[in-house]
What does this fold into?
Amino acid sequence: MHALPPGFEDLDQLAAKWARPTEVERNTARRTSSMAELESVYATLLPRMPAIVAALNQRRLPDLDPAERSLLWMALSFMEVAHSVELFKEPDPSDAFPAGRYAIREAP
It folds into this structure.
């Protein structure tokens, strides 16, 4: 369970799938979701992003507690989803290199 900080309980239903700690997991969640699901996640998170950013800006990254870290991961997932909704109009762009050809490397 990915608990979120107080004030973000309305996003709890998204956390299980979208509060993912790695770019690989967030990218996979986007590519394997339906467009309808991505549009729903986008519509839910877009109006909450100012509050999410404000909450995260209160702490330094190394000092985030587990709930705040989950909120950060949700914000990063929003960025993954936004490309599909705003630009590609599909979960995994069909006119680009296949996603399997990319090797996403996590920072050490």
